[in-house]
Amino acid sequence: MRTIIKIALLSLLALSHAAQCDETAGGVTFSGDLLSRSKLTGDWGGIRNDMADHGVRLDLDATHVTQHVASGGYDGELLSRFPGNRISQLLPHGSETTSDAMFNMLLKVDTGKAGLWPGGFLTVRGEGRVGKSLGIRSGGLMPTNGDALSPNVPGHANQDVLALTELTYAQFLSEHFGVAFGLINAADADKNEFAGSLRSRSSFMNIGMRISPVLGAAAPLLATLGATAIFLPTKNIIGTMGFINAEETTGYDPFERDNGTTFMTEWQVKHNLFGLPGKQTAGFVYGFDRKKLDFGTAPQYHLASLLRTGEAVQTNADTWALYYNAHQYIQGDSKGGWGPFVRAGFSDGHPNPIKWNVAFGLGGVGVGSWRPNDNWGIGGYALGASNEPVLNRLGIQDETGFEAFYNAAFTQWLHVTADVQYIDSALTGANLSGLGPLPAVNLPGPKEAWVVGVRTNLNF
Q1: Which residues have CB under 8 Å from 275's CB, separation 6+?
Q2: Which pTM value belongs to this model?
Q3: Which candidate, 7, 11, 13, places its Cα nearest to that of 237?
């Protein structure tokens, strides 16, 4: 084997373990009439409840998103004067409205409940996507539809894909310690109760609100090989620590995509402030030997390569990032309440193109007694680009955005989210005059954009 199985620290596995215990504890069933049951297809004549009692869960959910650029962004083809380069495939061609759908198929097995051995948990996940998202039509560095990133198959942006995105086995050796390994899915990392995560289908849609983007240069977006050590010293603390392959493997043989290694650690602490619940999450990543964009390279070489071939000059230089998020209820709790949240990240800025990010706002569950299961959020994000010459010549500066959403739970299995976003893009236009063999030209930047969207999530 060309690479050793690396150790990853993703709280996803610990959280999956806790969630599975809750879901199969006997108090939750799939029975009931159409409007009260937890899943659209119900209990399958009692088979589903029996499977859950024996530690087996099989779920399917589908998410459909339609977004419309109400104003601003890129209002025409960009870089069309450079035919054949791969960047043009990702750029808009005048479409203001797009729709796409994502599918998530999940199998969980609790070996203890299945009558095999205690403390074992197997998770298998497959995901698919059809249709097209806005891409960079809105003009922002941060995607306006984070749901469309799953599954994240390298080289297949805005294409129909189907892939295995998780295959992990976790074994808890005691109440306070466990290990896990396999194809790890990181979508629940850096999770915040109000702001969500990459896995969320009922919170914000913009990536700038859902995760710290400084992580992108050191760690894969979703799936890669790894293993993890999980620490649960108390009921209010979860910690993870280890290594993962630094290259995204979704849709490919994970043993053939092993470029680079990333050390990661994340710790979550639940607490009460004046009797009201909250949580803080802090993490650190350090990536080495992974191919990344070299933002210290002379601009003329970097731009010539990027615009003519779609490939940028790369480096194996190390990179690191710190991230933090927190939420605090100031009224009520997760069964009905609201409060503020904050998210922040900081990186080395070289070769990481994003130096820092911050997001903050208010979120809540329920609107009085008449809509107890709805949730909502309002907030903004900002990110700062690395102060490298090539980024300045490309016109990449700081970006800010605003987003508000309301997620209506019509039933336990049907949720509809209305969303509005404002983006003041980091892309201000590029001056390519006099850069080596490139023609003397100024590329226009996008306009400030307003994006509206509707997301529908069905849990079968």
Answers
A1: none
A2: 0.85
A3: 11
